[in-house]
Design goal:
Rossmann fold, 9 strands, binds adenosine-5'-diphosphate, binds magnesium ion
């Protein structure tokens, strides 16, 4: 058993002993998809220069879902069939059941706390944040009538548009720069009720853009129209964006890559977020055939500060 497993197990035991009536954190394990593609990711852009923020644009009155449907672009996506698990009509693909389990755990949690805007993050690049965010959004809209908005807020290493097979611009950075309204940046793909805001063009100061107040404005405007808003974030350890993004969300789900994320780095990631925002951990990329029922651990403490073992 790896160090992270031992630590997470200890945390789970201590947390279980101390929990009382608290909402249970979500824990899920996602296997490596059978035909995982070894995609080469673009180099992240860590340029620190900050542009002057233009004034907040006025994008008009609030609007209905019908208006959104009518005004946002219907785009013909070409999702990667190897990693976008719910697009090919094959509902029993390896990994889909785990996403359904994750969905039901999130719904259970939502009975006890506000949970609509969910940040998906992890310590480092290539741990599966985008994979989890995209498939989670897909499994959410597989339930009849549920609507999800997926936002690529990784302005440094955007990848979701590649996985979904669509364009990256205009997107979030254009919105945050005040150049486009929400209708111009939101895409409607082939899956009913799944909407997507790509990252937009590469910018020199992602952290400043994310913090300029417009993302909060955007979320406020569209929140009521969706059952879930799933935000894909940059890695939490090297840059500050994920912590900023978390301030706009109701919950943070941390992805840990099986046999890859070092425990001390996972622990550092956990410390980047307020206790009350942490809703759980996804152990991603477990080996095919692993019996992970014996490794069903929780990493996080509760808002009352209990369950400190994983810190
Ligand atoms: N469970 C999984 N099964 C198969 N491929 C995966 C899995 N998790 C991640 N990948 C793949 O690994 C690569 C890195 O994942 P990605 O989600 O882009 O990481 P991050 O967003 O954390 O940088 C991508 O090619 C992705 O499709
Ligand atoms: Mg990513």
């Amino acid at each position: 058993m790896s160090r992270i497993h031992e630590a997470l197990k200890k945390a789970e035991e201590q947390r279980a002993a101390s929990l009382g009536g608290q909402a249970e954190p979500v824990v899920a394990e996602i296997p490596a998809a059978e035909t995982a593609a070894a995609a080469s990711l673009p180099a992240p852009n860590f340029s620190p220069a900050a542009p002057a923020a233009p004034p907040m644009p006025s994008f008009g009155a609030s609007f209905t879902f019908d208006t959104l449907l009518a005004r946002c672009a219907a785009v013909n996506w070409s999702p990667d069939p190897k990693t976008m698990l719910f697009f090919n009509g094959e509902e029993q693909t390896y990994g889909t059941e785990e996403f359904r389990t994750l969905r039901s755990r999130l719904y259970q949690l939502r009975e006890k706390q506000t949970l609509r805007k969910l940040l998906i993050t992890s310590a480092l690049p290539k741990e599966g944040k985008s994979f989890v965010a995209a498939n989670l959004a897909q499994v959410m809209v597989r339930q009849h009538g549920r609507r999800a908005l997926l936002i690529d807020a990784d302005l440094r290493g955007a990848r979701l548009h590649q996985a979904l097979g669509t364009t990256s611009t205009p997107g979030l950075s254009e919105y945050l720069l005040g150049e486009c309204d929400e209708f111009a940046v939101m895409q409607r793909g082939p899956m009913e009720n799944l909407f997507f805001i790509p990252s937009g063009r590469v910018v020199s100061s992602p952290a400043e853009l994310v913090a300029n107040g417009r993302l909060k404005f955007l979320l406020n405007r569209v929140e009521a129209l969706f059952d879930w808003i799933i935000i894909d974030s940059p890695p939490a350890v090297p840059v500050s964006d994920a912590g900023l993004l978390a301030n706009y969300c109701d919950g943070v789900l941390i992805v840990v890559r099986s046999n890859a994320t070092p425990f001390d780095i996972a622990r550092k990631t956990r410390r980047e977020f307020r206790d009350d925002l942490l809703v759980g951990v996804v152990l991603n990329g477990i080996a095919a055939g692993s019996s992970y029922t014996q490794y069903y651990y929780s990493a996080y403490g509760q808002p009352n500060g209990k369950g400190e073992a994983a810190r």
